Amino acid sequence: MLEKKYSHLWLLIFMLLFSACEGISQDTTKVYLPSEHFPNLAYLVKDAQIWDYMIMNEESISFYANAEDKMKNLPECRIYQNELKDFQELIKKLPVDSIAILYTQKQSNYLKDLPHFYKYLKQKERKKIKPDTNLPLKGWKIAIDPGHIEKTMEMAQIEAKFIKMKPSDATGLVPISFNEANLTLATANLLAEKLKKVGAEVMITRPQAGIGLLGISFEEWYESRRFSDLVAEMCAGRIDSSYMTKYFFENDATKTDWYGRLYVPIDLRLRADKINAFSPDLSIIIHYNVHGPNWEIRDSENNMQPTDKNYTMSFVAGSFKAYELNRQEDRIAFLRLLLSDDITKSIELSDKITSSFVQTLNVPTVTVAENLGYLNKSCILTEKPGVYARNLGLTRNIKGVLCYGESLCQDNITEAAWLNQQLIQAGDMKTSSRIRMVADAYYEGILNYAKNNVIK
Asked: Is the pTM of this model over 0.85?
């Protein structure tokens, strides 16, 4: 007999998803938060066409490869009501690649027909670490991902992640020139040093300036591996032949095209793989922002105008649009996020870090008044100021609790002048004292989160 509480849960889901909503058909029902068992659903669905790929009713949750398979009732993965609790436990304990195997084998089978997964249900939780006031992060594993790659300004302009301004009264008559990848790596080095001192085990995904997760520079990759990696991505189903023809051959792709359309996607996938293999308790993804409308306004020498805009924000997983479920690996990620507490815990962590940005850096959280297109079109605001669900490659593919931080706007004139300085040491790099303040803000946010959470 089904547990009474789950019967009520599934009945509530059924009523909410398939009741007649004003002006909305059954196939495109807007979904409201059904119960405490699916708190992430409100942050996952950006448009109603998501339901072309899934059904949630009183009997099961079913995922489909496309709308046609849904019409034919041919699920890729169906989770029955009475196995939901076990499935959620498996999602929590299985590695990412094993979740994919479970998904593809599940189809309409019952979990009892897949007994080789049950060994994971019996796995014990990690032994709890006794609190230590001197080492508050003892036993915690923390992954840090410094965003972007390039070390030199020449390469940063191919990557399109740089700040360059002409000397002016606003800049103190000093030229400004720096790139985001060096800022993020310096921040990671300073943050890692602080975290290790209080007991954390830390892994930095990209420990060397100018070298991404492929282990070689872009120039080396471009000369020796770009075609073989393009074919490999197509064979793996991550790029189709029409995309390859259109963007790499028909239009005579430039280095910038190869960088953005192939080198970066491979690098991001490898970052997620490296973090997931590390199995961290927290993942910190470090980025710096640029005021949206200012990004494309550059002169012929790539100089941009300083702005007085400055704000902070952070991202967690979620906000899927229907076309973002075209690939099976993305449907698997959606299911993992639906049935785990990754998003809710990530919101808690990101709120602590974003609040620390505000307090430590004296930078306000972003508001709707900024009218930023990507926040309106691609994000869902959580209940925490400045914290948004957004379907980025890393937020989607990294398992566990994470914060994708955007601490400040680099093109703000005060910030740009400050970030342009190189007065302190961060690992083997010279950087700005402002970067130390950003690292301090991340650190305080992490400590505040850890006070109220235990390692799982």
From this structure: yes
